[in-house]
Amino acid sequence: MTNTYDLHNLTIETLLNRRSIRAFADEEIPADVVATLETVAQHAASSQYLNDWSAIRITDSKVAARLAEIGGQPYIAEAPLLYVFVLDEHRNASIAAAKGVDVDSDAFTLNGSYRYSQAQNDAVLALHAMETAAYSLGLGCVILGSLLNDVDALIDLLKLPKLTYPVLGLAIGRPAQEPALKPRMPRNIQFFENAYPQSSEDMLTTIADFDGVVHQYYDLRNTDRPVDAFSDQIAGNAVADMTGRTVGKPAARQGFRLDR
Ligand SMILES: Cc1cc2nc3c(=O)[nH]c(=O)nc-3n(C[C@H](O)[C@H](O)[C@H](O)COP(=O)(O)O)c2cc1C
Questions:
Q1: What is the similarity comment for this entry (predicted)?
Q2: Which residues, in sequence order, are CB contacts of 167 under 8 Å at separation 6+?
Q3: In this structure, are 18 and 106 located in the same domain?
Q4: Residue owning the nearest CA to atom 6 of ligand 1
Q5: Residue nearest to atom 20 of ligand 1 (CA)
């Protein structure tokens, strides 16, 4: 017997209709919704069950205003619910130390590059679970990498201890805008079979067509003109100044040894 699948179930519809929301109704999110979103995030998978992420709920409007300033995006301060997800080996280091592990020895690896990247993965998976749950409830979200414009300032503002590092923000609220779905590139240049294609020729031909599709999209942040062609956006980002967002120095300040 062959199984049949309902390809139009609510989960898939929610994911296919996801789009970033950057304007929110001035409407509080009820406590039971907040609790559900946070519990959903906790149920995401976690590398080796380390649960090596935390999230900081921002309820102080002064802190939110400062975050909006760091991110250079006013809507950050306007979100009824706002989180900063951090990768967190601080908690695990404390637990290990309480069990007698010498966290200053070379045998200690929670501060190494592998844990750093897996903890970041864990944080992102948790954030994404929360984001999806929020959309399923009719809320909207925007993920905030802009908070990393000034990592040092963010670490100070949130009083992040050693062995933590900010990953992303998530702003949540009832949508006060209806942006169009942003187009995605044809699947065959993002999903490959068995190995990575050895030539970029087909991809570049496809992208030339996709450029036109993206150019038709009007971003609500900039309603007066269509957005740049996809390849122009990529070329611009390829040389964007990332000075404040560089990981090496602030990660070392936080006690990580990314060379290990
Ligand atoms: C890691 C990450 C960081 C992002 N940072 C920001 C941000 O700082 N500000 C913002 O307005 N959107 C941010 N976004 C949203 C993206 O711009 C958005 O997802 C992308 O343009 C695709 O549009 P869509 O989400 O509407 O499909 C971020 C998305 C991701 C995944």
A1: Belongs to the flavin oxidoreductase frp family.
A2: 53, 85, 86, 87, 120, 123, 124, 127
A3: yes
A4: 144
A5: 20
Nearest CA to ligand 1 atom 3: 145
CA distance 52 to 86: 9
Q: What one-character-per-residue DSSP string does 96-113 give?
A: HHHTT--TTSTT--TTBH
pLDDT tens sequence across 57-95:
999 999 999 999 999 999 999 999 999 999 999 999 999
Shared-domain flag, residues 155 and 195:
no
> Token digits for 57?
């709920």
Q: Which residues does a 6 A CB cutoff place in the pocket of ligand 1?
A: 19-20, 22, 71, 73, 142-146, 168, 182
Q: Do residue 45 and residue 123 come from a single domain?
A: yes
Say whether pLDDT at 30 is over 80.
yes
137 and 249 within one domain: no
Quote the number of domains for the chain. Answer: 2
Nearest atom in ligand 1 to 184's CA: 27
Which of 161, 180, 199 is the last residue before a domain boundary?
180
* 1 has pLDDT over 70: no
